[in-house]
Specification:
The structure holds two protein chains of two kinds. Chain A is an alpha+beta fold. Chain A has helices at 2-29, 56-60, 126-129; strands at 31-36, 49-54, 68-73, 76-87, 92-94, 105-107, 112-116, 132-133, 137-144. In chain A, a hairpin with a 2-residue loop joins strand 3 and strand 4. Chain A is elongated and about 80 Å long. Chain A starts with a helix and ends with a strand. The model of chain A has no long low-confidence stretch (mean pLDDT 90). In chain B, a hairpin with a 7-residue loop joins strand 3 (76-80) and strand 4 (88-95). Helix content of chain B is 20%, strand content 27%. Classes of the chains: A alpha+beta, B alpha+beta. The interface between A and B is medium-sized, with 24 and 29 residues.
Chain lengths: 146, 175
């Protein structure tokens, strides 16, 4: 009786580990569903939209200018942010606010990208914390539901 | 004939079982728990690779211990290079967020580490591409902590988390 319960428990744990590992591999190398919150990407992505993010592009290093990406926040590695890639390494980007009279430009350093939200008036992005290393990119959003 | 068919089906079943069990479990283990890597370069001499090009050290990289991003000053960590995302670099953590340190050859003489960032340096100053070149690095780039040297056998040891006394921060963030 006891051996039966023990056997069932081990089998249950085995299946949990196996499916957990398959889920990890699927999310890490293929993609997954993400819920976005916040107003910084309006009107493209609204608050609490459900989007599908594919994580293969970042392993193959083919993130392009104009892609919407999910990135680990540079100031808080446990949270993710969702922004659009405005410039890749070597590109010239405008670093001043839209309200500034004199525009200032700079070049995106090697190995970094420049991110901006679509809702420029209500978005903390690279104009605030500077260019973001490519290594922080988690995935690229390919389509959204609804 | 029937027996050969039975063997074929059993073979396919065993193959699929191996494919869907062994590969995800192994990949998840190497990504999330621990893996092994060979150290190249002289930036961490004399702690790692003291023999130069003749014998490269092989270290055990522990992903599990940094899953919550808590590193201590003096740990040897591997991280994604901020200049080249295809490369991993292995350096020692010198300062955590909030510390103020004196830099060696950086564009600013004194730096306060921003929130969510760390300052890393190689032990071999002058021969190391580290924070003195690219500034504080985001904790999100952290890959693993190097805990042991596994090869060559005469260098088998546990790596000590030790901060060089001359690189102590000038002011620490109170915990």
């Amino acid at each position: 009786m006891f051996r039966n319960v023990l056997g069932k428990t081990f089998r249950f744990l085995g299946y949990t580990v196996q499916y957990g590992c398959i889920a990890h591999c699927a999310f890490e190398y293929l993609g997954g569903i993400v819920v976005c919150s916040g107003p910084s990407m309006e009107p493209t992505i609204q608050n609490s939209d459900i989007v599908f993010s594919e994580n293969l592009s970042r392993h193959l290093y083919c993130i392009r200018k104009g892609d919407i990406v999910i990135v680990k926040s540079p100031n808080d590695p446990k949270s993710n942010i969702c922004k659009r890639v405005i410039g890749l390494e070597g590109d010239k980007v405008c670093t001043s606010n839209p309200s500034d009279f004199l525009k200032s430009h700079s070049y995106v350093p090697k190995g970094h990208v420049w991110l901006e939200g679509d809702n420029l008036r209500n978005s903390t992005d690279s104009r605030c914390y500077g260019p973001v290393p490519y290594g922080l990119i988690r995935g690229r959003i390919c389509f959204k539901t609804g | 004939m029937a027996q050969a068919q039975g063997f074929g089906r059993r073979y396919i079943k065993a193959f699929l079982k191996g494919f869907f069990v062994a590969i995800p479990v192994t990949v998840t283990f190497l990504d999330r728990v621990a893996c092994v890597a060979r150290v190249e370069g002289a930036s961490m001499q004399p702690s790692l690779n003291p023999g130069g090009r003749q014998a490269s050290d092989v270290v055990l990289l522990n992903h599990w211990s940094i899953r919550n991003y808590d590193v201590q000053r003096g740990d040897i960590v591997s991280l994604v290079s901020p200049r080249n995302p295809e490369q991993k670099i292995i350096k020692r953590v010198i300062a955590l967020e909030g510390d103020i340190i004196k830099t060696i050859g950086y564009k600013k003489k004194y730096v306060k580490i921003p929130h969510g960032h760390i300052w890393v340096e190689g032990d071999h100053h002058g021969h190391s591409f580290d924070s003195n070149a690219f500034g504080p690095v985001s904790l999100g780039l952290l890959h693993a902590r190097a805990t042991h040297i596994l090869w060559p056998p005469q260098r088998w040891q546990k790596l000590q988390s030790m901060l060089p006394p001359e690189r102590k921060p000038l002011q620490r963030e109170q915990e």
